[in-house]
Amino acid sequence: MKACASLGLLLSIFFSSCAPKTEGCLNITAAYALIERVVPAYVDLFKVEYIPQEEGADVFELEQIGNKIVLRGNNGVSVASALNYYLKHYAHCDYSWNASNMKFPDPVPTVPEKIRKLTPYKYRHYFNYCTFNYTASWWDWERWQFEIDYMALNGINMPLAMTGQNAVWDRIYRKLGFGDEDMDRFFTGPAYFMWFWAGNIDAWGGPLPQSWKESHEALQKQILARERELGMTPILPAFTGHVPPSFKDKFPEAKIKRLNWEGRFDDTFVLEPEDPMFQKIGNLFMQEQIATFGTDHFYGADTFNEMYPPSNDSTYLSNISNAVYRSMADVDPKAVWVMQGWLFVDKRDFWQPEQIQAYLGGVPDENLIVLDLWSEENPVWNRTESYYGKPWIWCMLHNFGGRNMMFGNADKLATEPANVVNDPAAGKLVGIGAVPEGIEQNPMIYTLLLDHVWRKDKIDLDSWLKNYAHCRYGVQDANMERAWEILRRTTYAHEGNYESTITARPTFERDNVWAYTGIPYDPAEIIDAWELMLASADQLKDNPCYQYDLVLVGKQVLGNYATEIQQKFIEDYETKDLPAFERNSKEFMDLIDDMDELMATHEAFLLGKWINDAKRWGTNDAESHLYEKNARDLVTLWGGKDAFLHDYASKQWAGLFKGFYKQRWQMFIDEVHDCIRQNKIFDVEATDDAIRSWEWEWVNASEPYSDKPEGDPVEISNNMYEKYAQKLRNVYE
Questions:
Q1: 313 pLDDT above the threshold of 80
Q2: 3-118 and 124-459, same CATH topology
Q3: Quick one: angle between helices 141-153 and 210-229, nearest 10?
Q4: What are the distances in angstroms from CA 229 to CA 152, 221, 226?
Q5: Among candidates 251, 289, 267, which has minimal Cα distance to 202?
Q6: CA 243, CA 268: separation in Å to the nearest integer?
Q7: Contact 551, 717 (CB under 8 A)
Q8: CA distance 552 to 112
């Protein structure tokens, strides 16, 4: 057994057999356990010490004393942040999603002078409700442990914590007389909890098995225990009025409104705040939740998510928010409502200043924190007098649906948080947050955002990118530095998602509902970045971050090209040039195969992992099939056969390319080919209907997809470069 493994075993025994050692607000035992998980081979290099907050602000210190690197902080998050500072600035390591570089230089770097950092943000928020589905639907404890460590290393202290909540709701409604049939008509399947919590939908993807409720209640207890021992204060949910469809049958006198989410699903039912049952249910839930999970006094509740309130009357809106708050505060007088501000963006026409001010005014200032959910692109704080004096948090939304193409505005992100935190007009700005709908994509963007946690000044992106490349690959490599500079001015110079036409339902158009293919940069430039990265293959081929980044850039190059080919064979149809159509459509289908082959080399791009992780939660075949259907549906149709949100996630995954996108493009191309050959008009509606029927069959199917990478990512990347690079340069000239 290796020395580091032996040490890890001894530490595990020590941690499990001894009461936690604490000093002040720092759980020293938990801090050492995190170090052991993150850098098991180097845990003996570090010593943990407590220091108090400075003027109410979290603080960390990093100092070399003899042969020990001392990590000081006022809690576990601060100590972890000190460790991460060392990893980034001295060991040049990168701990991130999909791939990490955790190999220390030899000799191990020392810290020449003491580092001390204070955060300007009381709260560092993390997670969107959607993240729990678009990314975390199938996470087990091992995956959650990694994410909690990632949060701590990056200074997060206020994570949303929604796992396992249906077990609590189940007990509450059963106490009120509801049975199995009522719950089956209420709870959604596991991939759709966010929209259930928000009151958008009932039952879709269900019925929810009891085994899921039990297993995820237990998982939530593990999650909360770990977050709390590191000094985090998780946000738990509260009652917003959403009740089962059969509520009126049980309580015929109840005042209930029917709401509908975008006209796409059946109505849901919301209890009016003035009804006495509102406070009764809200209080019962709070009592049961606190008894089950404890509390840190932060609660999330989102009313009218992507739905219009039934009235714009100021008194009505104030009463709604006050009722939601009182349902928390009656049980927990220290309750603070952490409200997502998405409703003020999504239904901006409704939420005028009078309505926003009335809604926020229903809650005392000190008991409400507003998340300005899309601050980096569509802020609300600067048009509401900083939420009319309420505490608020600047948040980066960035991602919709967990889409995993390359995008983000790095230059803006390097400066905007500093601009806001130093702006006198920012009012009661109390935090910074990352609230993507899905994670495990574009790790550079999130590393850049979270580097603001411990600073008030702007980031010099030139030097930051060089250090980022050093951390990703463990060496200073001129090719990689130049590649990242190209990516900065292309893929990472623009806001918004820009997909490949491959992921869109087949059409004659360039764009299709959720797939926007208008690339806002010169696609030829990232071919140069790809070439530079491949030039360093001999030195970096075994580095996990290099392998991931190489595949990521390669698939972006090829995905961009797909739209060019699509437009060629569409033009061939219009000119009735059958040989050209056959040639160009074949190239398009071959490109899909090639992209699938490239992505199959890395675990981060596998449909099979998503599906098989879902199936593993099943305790029998029926449950595994239900979870597989949830997994397939969310990332493709989203809903039923005629779902409006189809292709919203636009996942670029091996398996999904060959097994789903390619099949429907083949149906489209075969029909167009037949129309050219027979000189007949293409029937758009008939073809679309046939494709939609096939898609629904795929959602309900169960053919296997691999969850293991296949092929060498460097070798196959090089093959794809040799096949496409010069051809693409000629196209873009």
A1: yes
A2: no
A3: 30
A4: 11, 12, 5
A5: 267
A6: 8
A7: yes
A8: 36
Q: Per-residue pLDDT tens for 519-566? A: 899 999 999 999 999 999 999 999 999 999 999 999 999 999 999 999
pLDDT tens digits, 670-684: 999 999 999 999 999
| Topology of the domain comprising 124-459 | TIM Barrel (3.20.20)
| CA distances, 509 to each of 78, 494, 501, 518, 566 (Å) | 51, 23, 9, 12, 9
Cβ contact 512:504 at 8 Å = yes
0.90 surpassed by pTM:
yes
Q: Tokens standing for 419?
A: 């601009």
Q: With beta carbons less than 8 A apart as the criterion, state whether 20 and 43 touch.
A: no
Q: Which residues contact 217 (CB under 8 A, 6 or more apart)?
A: 164, 167, 168, 292
Task: Give the tens place of pLDDT for each residue, 633-680.
Answer: 999 999 999 999 999 999 999 999 999 999 999 999 999 999 999 999
φ/ψ of residue 255, rounded to 5: -90, 110
- Tokens at residue 157, please? 């202290």
- Asked if residues 102 and 93 have their Cβ atoms less than 8 Å apart, the reply is yes
H or E stretch including 570?
helix 544-575
> pLDDT value at position 127?
98
Could you write out the DSSP letters of every residue in 621-634?
Answer: HHHHHHHHHHHHHH
The percentage of residues in the chain with a pLDDT greater than 70, rounded to a whole number, is: 97
Distance between alpha carbon 268 and the CA centroid of its chain, in Å?
26
CATH entry 1.10.260.40 includes domain 479-732: no
pLDDT band at 232 (very low <50, low <70, confident <90, very high): very high
Work out the number of other CB atoms within 10 angstroms of the CB of residue 627.
Answer: 25
Please give the CATH architecture assigned to the domain spanning 3-118: 2-Layer Sandwich (3.30)
* Complete edge-to-edge strand list for the sheet that includes strand 59-65: 46-50, 68-73, 59-65, 115-118
Q: What's the chain's average pLDDT?
A: 95
CA atoms in the 13 A half-sphere facing the CB of 700: 9
Residue 262 three-state SS: coil
- 501, 560 contact by CB (below 8 A): no
For the record, the structure tokens of 601 come out as 């080399």
Q: Does residue 411 contact residue 448 with C-beta atoms inside 8 Å?
A: no
Strand partners, 337: 299, 368
Secondary structure, 3-state, 305-330: CCCCCCCCCHHHHHHHHHHHHHHHHC
The confidence band for 319, taking pLDDT boundaries of 50, 70 and 90, is: very high
Nearest to 107 by CA among 94, 85, 86, 90: 90
Q: How many CA atoms lie within 13 A of 85 on its CB side?
A: 27
User: Contact at 8 Å (CB) between 197 and 216?
Assistant: no
Contact present, 510 and 518 (Cβ < 8 Å): yes
- Extract the tokens encoding 390: 């309420």
Q: What residues does each domain of the chain span?
A: 3-118, 124-459, 479-732
Among left, alpha and beta (phi > 0; psi -120 to 50; other), residue 543 is beta
How far is the C-alpha of 691 from the C-alpha of 697, rounded, in Å?
10
Which of 16-20, 94-98, 195-199, 614-618 bottoms out in mean pLDDT, i.e. has the lowest?
A: 16-20
The pLDDT, as a whole number, for residue 209 is 98
